[in-house]
Amino acid sequence: xxxxxxxxxxxxxxxxxxxxxxxxxxxxxxxxxxxxxxxxxxxxxxxxxxxxxxxxxxxxxxxxxxxxxxxxxxxxxxxxxxxxxxxxxxxxxxxxxxxxxxxxxxxxxxxxxxxxxxxxxxxxxxxxxxxxxxxxxxxxxxxxxxxxxxxxxxxxxxxxxxxxxxxxxxxxxxxxxxxxxxxxxxxxxxxxxxxxxxxxxxxxxxxxxxxxxxxxxxxxxxxxxxxxxxxxxxxxxxxxxxxxxxxxxxxxxxxxxxxxxxxxxxxxxxxxxxxxxxxxxxxxxxxxxxxxxxxxxxxxxxxxxxxx
Length: 308
Prior knowledge:
Blueprint: H1 2-26, E1 50-51, E2 56-60, H2 66-73, E3 79-81, H3 92-95, H4 98-104, E4 108-109, E5 114-118, H5 128-135, E6 140-145, H6 148-165, H7 173-177, H8 189-193, H9 196-204, E7 212-216, H10 217-222, H11 224-235, E8 246-249, E9 254-257, H12 280-301
Parallel strand pairs: 2-5, 2-6, 3-5, 6-7
Antiparallel strand pairs: 1-4, 8-9
Helix pairs in contact: 9-12
């Protein structure tokens, strides 16, 4: 009995030491700078760490750069980022488990830290806006978008890759995108997901425009820092992310991250995967069809982006 108690006490001490180490790593680089308030991570106390509902959610779009945006935001010492997509608001089975289950999927955070979750499936799910508002009508929402034609091809490419890994066949892109007579198949799900104005309309029916921040995913790939500055301001975070946190990896063809006081890391190999082929004629038809939806989206967000 005595040995059991001693072993339990030793295990508890080891776990507490590990938590202290994790919190110190989380708060690296969090010392206050002139003109900025102290970061909430200063002098962390493990007893204050807990799982909290997210104060900000990256709601989409699928294949728009949501993972890159979350990883870059997690460079900020005041951000606690959920590691996996939770699919709470768009999967009925998960939603029925309740907010306590959702909170349990969040990372440990300290008082004053902002918990951020990302699930790109939220943006196009009709039930998601109302469910998010029911949780928190003041939630801050980040929407990262890219050229919808490129997003569609990337969407198809991911599904194709997943099918091939399972040894399953999948039709060529043009077979899914085009009808036999040559017109676009407007029921194709990847095309529906690229009609941003339809999905944004449902979110604007539940949230004021000021609570939805649009990130240009194409610009994030070209030069991450300006887009991250805008996201910091929107989230009310002190400016801590700097150009020195990024470097361009010529081999991969995109920017990798350098956390403050940490080791450089790149996004996983699925990022930058070569796209499936799409003929010039099919792309022309796709871009021509998307012109009107794109203009409607630009009017909704008050911003024009360089899309096809």
